[in-house]
Amino acid sequence: MSSNRSFRSVFGAFILAAVATVPAVAAAAPGGRGCAERNNNQYHKLLECVTVDGVREHQAAFQAIADANGGTRADQTPGYDASVDYVADTMTAAGWTVEVVPFEYPGTDVVLQQLTPTSSDYVSATFTGGGEGDVTGTVVPVDLSLADPATSSSGCEAADFAGVDLSGPADVALIQRGTCNFSFKALNAEAAGAEAVIIFNQGTADRLGPYSNVTLGGPDVVDLPVVTASFDAGVALAAPGSVARVKVESVTRVSHNVIAEKAGKTSGNVVMAGAHLDSVPAGPGINDNGSGSAVLLEVADNLGNHTPQNTLRFAWWGAEELGLIGSTAWVGQRSQEQLDEIALYLNFDMVGSPNHVFMVYDADESTFPAPVPVPDGSIAIEDTFESYYTWAGVPYDDTAFSGRSDYQAFINNGIPSSGLFTGAEVIKTPEQAAIWGGVAGEQFDPCYHLACDTFDNVNLGALDVNADAVAFAVLTYAYSTESVNGVPGKKVPGNFSIPAPAGEEGTFGAPGGGGLDHDHDHEASDG
């Protein structure tokens, strides 16, 4: 990719013309037949019909689903099931052929109930590396810091358990998150005689609600069940005379992916695009990933009357937040012949982050060496997105082609892939703020994996730009994938001129991007 000097000279000369062009296209009202009736078979027609208002309607629906189902759309919750129904119904109404595809994966049944002095059921999750069991017993607090949560080191030292009576047959150690590895807390509790452990959230501003996707750092670290809880649940459980039930049991989970298809004229050449549909348990997930999911719905809705040259297949994946499970399962369900028909896969995971940077997966490894194989053809897809950003006059940068989102299973099978990302928990630098605006020193998404990832947790400008970028790429490959896999197609009708990516190899912005840091096994060392 080009240097910063190249970026500034190319961008400075180009943006004046581009900025004058884009708003006119984006703001134009469809002439003649409305978007719902016409064939959006050209760039200008599709881009004027794909709107941020349309995307927001779908995000509002996801928010309403979460509101009606305990504030979450996580896999294995009614909120996720309702999201599946919404996507399937929406795509069917848009004229696509829809299949809701089940998949199984090993999971755990986790129960955390307080029996006395109050009766409550709490949202909980287990730790990878913990044991199984069903324990009902006295809750024994261990060196808690409820009044000053920031100082919590509960359970980090064996000395924390001195004078703590865990000699009974069913004692539940109540430990506060903070300072040391979760594994230290669990091992110390087991050594002190506990039969079960609850590690509740710390209580600082960023550590309040329920949390999940946590590990003790390896398999079979302890034999006893170890579960999570929110800070408020921990405070309630710390009450004198508290009795609780902790249950962790291995089960087989069943979830669903939604697959929608629009058959093309060319057989055996399928263009796929996908976004994960599930949220984390802590919140409704309207940016992560109600943004990518809603953009795909909006693009699909405006292609309802189009018959593509290549078959289009859109996917909404389940259980991504549990470790890319839905996409991996679906790819594993395909025969080699079926996989060979997939020309490419486009991934859209968090495309409207509030403190965003526009980023494309770095298939050419110009900024980030890829720790995974990069299939041939992926660089051409990266260039397509960069060409759109160049035409739109939008500065862009790389994000690591790390395989840590739903494109992983595709690249593992040699399928060319790329996608867009606007940032998660990585902190925006002053240089990035100077280019893209926003606030230096804050996360790209301050509500990443938190309850505040709501309808308001979106940058509308970023969402608008990326909705058009997705539409642009999908229509490009609906006509031809020749640049990616060599299969001839057709030129998109019209006189739309697509520029080469700005700069020698297509970079905009400060090297380093934001990184795609979806830690699906995160918090292993963060107690």
Hey, roughly how much beta strand do the residues contain?
15-25%
CATH C-level of the largest domain: Alpha Beta
The shape, in one word, is elongated
CATH architecture of the largest domain: 3-Layer(aba) Sandwich
Task: Decide which structural class fits the backbone.
Answer: alpha/beta
Instruction: Quote the distance from N terminus to C terminus.
Output: 39 Å
| Count of folded domains | 2
What do we call the CATH topology of the largest domain?
A: Aminopeptidase
Percent helix among the residues?
25-40%
Sketch the topology as an H/E string, one letter per element: HHHHEEEEEHEEEHEEHEHHEEHEHEHHH
Number of beta-strand segments: 15
Number of helices: 14
Q: What is the CATH homologous superfamily assignment of the largest domain?
A: Zn peptidases
* Main sheet characteristics: 13 strands, mixed
Mean pLDDT: 90
Q: Which stretches are low in confidence, meaning pLDDT under 50 for 5 or more residues running? A: 1-29, 504-525
Computed Rg: 25 Å
